[in-house]
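Renewal narrative, Specific Aim 1. Our central claim is that a sequence can be written position by position from structural information alone. The example that follows is taken directly from our test logs and has not been curated for this report. It begins with the structure tokens describing the chain, in the order in which they were read.
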């Protein structure tokens, strides 16, 4: 069967011939998307958009009724020495209430002596209030209140005042996000540049991948702003996009440039070297990009809006990076030619050398190919050992106090509130809808709810009720027993939903009382994620399998890719659980274990790692297939593929690990979990999996690697670029050896 036309080679050839068109077209697209995106502005998700299940229904009832529940805030007055009945303590409470009221931003300010919000040991009092105006913008307006409390705190040496709530917590998150995002930008880029300088030993060759990756990220952010008009995104989406864009953008360019440099070192002329790079590495980039994008599309099956935004953002930046690597990169390289190595750095320049198909492998690879069964067992055992902690993985929607660094004053305040007033930082919110909320029956139902809730010991004081007569809705705030997130609070939520509410609020026909709040949201969110795991995993693995089958015309290669990638993901899960849930070595990454993994993290890490793992797999197996198609036997083909890609895979892995590790050093807990999880997984994938497990497994399988059932012989035989490499003229003396196929590696 004749090979199909190589799209990557065609695009690379066109760009090399139309250099100015490709370069200026790219620049115009980047500028246009940036300008249009800036004009449109990015639309972020509102609080109601995140909801799912019963808590989502509660939020939707309020939105449909146009009820904007004010952002709740709390001020904790604490003293180790004074009790709440002491004049000095009372003065501090009164001054705090006056300070909050004096800002003009607060309403429904509760006096703790009247609401009963004084701790059992009398050393804490809780002032509760709500921020006036739109709750979605409360975080932007809360600073005067924070400043007023800080000023009051400074005036009372014997007591400590601290603020915590929806607005101040979100402000803390936003401030940390801004600092983290800036830090990531100013750290990840220099780190990646340093690695590229070591890899290429030349300034221009090192800068080129970074420029393309950065422009791809800029263009993708503009495009994201436009697409967010239809599908709003989470505030963290830009950071995720930067993370992915830098990683894949630099890697794709690295694959391309290294192959072109190898071919030049083998004696090819400039045009031929670029054509071979386009037909081989360009094709691998195209397949890898499509695979990553398809994996990201699996997030659409989650049923959660935040994942839809993540999916759109990552797909956009990956496809833009692929397009740039296949068009503007070959155009720039055609313009530069050998000038791409300008700015050579003494001591870093590594000579390319010609490799032969029958050349002996290195010590490690030679040992792996000699006793593949032993190394396969060792590799699998190591990954399973790392994955073991994941068996006890616990996921939850982390609160503000868990996301922020442990030394943040707001975290200390939240922890004190949890201890003195269990459930107060994150009370359940019952949205009670009745046919007539002001009727005696509805009023009695609310009173019955209060009595039964308190009698059950599952709900604590203060229970607050806000009635909206015009909408026939009452919003009931009920602090749950426990710390608001642990097993005690989960049991309290179940009792509230299954026993107390059915016996009181929803006893009358036509009434409804869905439960919302942080714990309810986290519980429903986790339930939705658990129900989406099977369809997401099935889609990602199924489509990845089909892509591998189509690219390599081998069922065995496709199955092997799935299994190896699953091992990498499992190992990443295990490391994340060990560090961030169990606290094993958490101090090494500058954090304190929060006892759980962010609820969206496992699914997101799975789709990202599955896509990125395919990146290396496609690149390595493509080189093995090249040697196999030229007539090399299985062991020699595997040895050649691993050996000739070892340098570039290691370099690409180092860059990805470095970029991800930068995010692991940021202050936000979810950034740390994401960065460390991805960094560990990519490190294992680029080393243990690709250097040991893959060659061991392929050596064991022998000719079965390329097995394709007869009923699948109709699959098109796609080009792997071997025709370009085989037919291209060489100017080196080695070409005289007709019986040997020269192959190049750094």
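The sequence written for that structure reads:
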């Amino acid at each position: 069967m004749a090979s199909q036309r190589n799209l990557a080679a065609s695009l690379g050839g066109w760009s090399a011939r139309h250099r100015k068109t490709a370069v200026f077209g790219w620049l115009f697209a980047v500028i246009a998307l940036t300008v249009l995106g800036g004009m449109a502005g990015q639309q972020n998700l509102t609080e109601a958009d995140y909801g799912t299940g019963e808590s989502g229904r509660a939020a939707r009832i309020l939105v449909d009724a146009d009820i904007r529940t004010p952002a709740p805030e709390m001020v904790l007055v604490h003293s180790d020495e004074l009790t709440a009945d002491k004049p000095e303590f009372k003065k501090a409470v009164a001054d705090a209430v006056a300070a909050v009221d004096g800002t003009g931003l607060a309403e429904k300010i509760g006096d703790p002596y009247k609401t009963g919000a004084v701790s059992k040991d009398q050393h804490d009092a809780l002032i509760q209030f709500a921020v006036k105006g739109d709750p979605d913008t409360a975080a932007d307006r809360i600073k005067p209140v924070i400043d007023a409390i800080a000023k009051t705190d400074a005036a009372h040496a014997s007591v400590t005042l601290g603020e915590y709530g929806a607005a101040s917590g979100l402000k803390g998150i936003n401030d940390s996000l801004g600092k983290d995002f800036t830090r990531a930008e100013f750290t990840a880029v220099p780190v990646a540049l340093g690695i590229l300088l070591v890899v290429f030993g030349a300034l221009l060759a090192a800068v080129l991948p970074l420029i393309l990756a950065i422009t791809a990220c800029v263009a993708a952010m503009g495009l994201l702003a436009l697409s967010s008009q239809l599908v709003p995104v989470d505030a963290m989406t830009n950071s995720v996009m930067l993370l992915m864009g830098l990683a894949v953008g630099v890697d794709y360019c690295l694959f391309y440039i290294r192959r072109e440099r190898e071919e030049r070192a083998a004696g090819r002329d400039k045009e031929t070297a670029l054509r071979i790079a386009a037909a081989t590495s360009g094709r691998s980039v195209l397949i890898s990009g499509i695979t990553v994008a398809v994996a990201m599309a699996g997030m659409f099956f989650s049923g959660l809006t935040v994942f839809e935004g993540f999916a759109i953002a990552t797909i956009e930046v990956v496809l833009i990076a692929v397009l740039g690597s296949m068009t503007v990169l070959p155009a720039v390289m055609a313009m530069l030619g050998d000038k791409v190595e300008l700015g050579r750095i003494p001591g870093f320049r590594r000579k390319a050398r010609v490799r032969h198909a029958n050349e002996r492998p290195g010590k490690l690879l030679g040992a792996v190919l000699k006793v593949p069964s032993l190394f396969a067992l060792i590799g699998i055992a190591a990954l399973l050992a790392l994955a073991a902690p994941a068996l006890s993985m616990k996921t939850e929607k982390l609160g503000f106090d868990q996301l922020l660094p442990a030394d943040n004053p707001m975290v200390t305040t939240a922890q004190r509130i949890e201890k003195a007033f269990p459930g107060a930082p994150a009370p359940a919110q019952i949205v009670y809808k009745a046919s007539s909320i002001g009727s005696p029956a509805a009023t009695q139902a609310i009173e019955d709810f209060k009595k039964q809730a308190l009698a059950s010991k599952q709900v604590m004081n203060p229970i607050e009720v806000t009635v909206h007569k015009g909408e026939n809705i009452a919003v009931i705030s009920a602090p749950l027993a426990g710390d608001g997130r642990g097993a005690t609070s989960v049991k309290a939520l179940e009792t509230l939903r299954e026993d107390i509410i059915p016996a009181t609020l929803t006893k009358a026909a036509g009434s409804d009382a869905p439960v919302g709040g942080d714990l309810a949201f986290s519980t429903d969110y986790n339930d939705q994620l658990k129900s989406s795991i099977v369809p997401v995993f099935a889609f990602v693995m199924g489509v990845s399998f089909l892509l591998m089958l189509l690219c390599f015309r081998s069922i065995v290669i496709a199955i092997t890719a799935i299994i190896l990638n699953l091992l990498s993901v499992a190992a990443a899960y295990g490391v994340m659980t060990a560090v961030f849930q169990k606290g094993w070595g958490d101090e090494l990454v500058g954090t304190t274990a929060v006892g759980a993994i962010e609820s969206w993290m496992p699914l997101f890490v799975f789709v990202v790692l599955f896509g990125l793992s395919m990146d290396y797999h496609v690149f390595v197996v493509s080189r093995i297939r090249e040697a196999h198609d030229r007539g090399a036997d299985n062991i020699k083909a595997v040895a050649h593929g691993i050996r000739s890609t070892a340098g570039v895979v290691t370099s690409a892995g180092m860059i990805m690990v470095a970029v991800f590790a930068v995010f692991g050093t940021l202050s936000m807990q979810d950034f740390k979990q994401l960065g460390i999880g991805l960094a560990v997984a990519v490190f294992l994938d680029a080393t243990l999996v690709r250097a040991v497990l893959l060659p061991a497994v392929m050596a064991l399988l022998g000719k079965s690697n390329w097995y394709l059932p007869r009923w699948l012989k109709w699959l098109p035989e796609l080009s792997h670029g071997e025709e370009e490499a085989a037919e291209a003229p060489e100017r080196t003396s080695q070409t005289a050896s007709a019986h040997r196929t020269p192959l190049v590696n750094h």
